[in-house]
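Reagents: none. Just compute today. LysR family transcriptional regulator.
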Amino acid sequence: MGREDLGSLAMFLAVAEEKSFTRAAARLGVSQSALSHSMRRLEAKLGLRLLTRTTRSVSPTIAGERLLDTLRPALDDIDDTLSSLTALRERPAGTIRITTSKHAARTILWPVVERLTADNPDIVVELSVDSGLTDIVAERFDAGVRLGERLEKDMIAVRIGPKLRMAAVASPTYFAAHGKPETPADLAQHQCINLRFVSSGSLYAWEFEKAGRELKVKVDGQLVMNDPDLTLEAAIAGRGIAFVIEDHAAAQIADGRLVRVLDDWCEPFDGHYLYYPSRRQPSPAFSLLLDALRHRD
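Predicted 3D structure written out:
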């Protein structure tokens, strides 16, 4: 194969990652017919089937998977080299893609990104809000944001936010009708609003700690949500007790729409960290964002 095949290899990688010719064509800015033609030509040149096509999806064959294992790190190295060339520019430039939770995006990332992009017009920042545990290498993100307790060991992690606390909250009308729990065990007698994880599909077991004693409580109730904003709305509506990050409910607690309970069972825990692959050399633009995000006590 020659250098003229590099474009076809990049197209193959996009189709394999997107599992769709339509999405890959949109990502690359080419037509589906041009993409299909390029894939047929590449397979003919190799004498191998690289993709299995069905009416609903596209997936790599065994040969395609072997090619992917080689292509991903090679193209990542090329991306790193191209990014490093921006150091020769007078101003930081380039695109930074970050996957993050909604809470971190709103409370930490956006205030910094808003200032950074205003001051550096050649920097483009893409924030992808996803509550799941995204594989940043496979999905080609530059970095991700997770809580400290959920970090992967082979990543460089930088603290970007303060410690956090959880808060058990419900409306005054709910507590007037049902009373207040005094201990986590009392939650068994209450309507609790469950949160289901998008990534695993499992229900979140509420985590409490007091004087070194840790408890995980599986709660019951009529409502199950996969978004913290909805659990908070349900609590305000008097439908039960919600368990959310403290500052998420701070305004509603302050104005009396929600009342907090079990406060002495909610100890601080590690907050948000930005993480990225240890082998990746940060670009000047990424380093600038990282320094702006770095939490300083």
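Residues 89-161+271-293 form a domain with the D-Maltodextrin-Binding Protein; domain 2 fold (CATH 3.40.190.10).
Action item: order primers for follow-up constructs.
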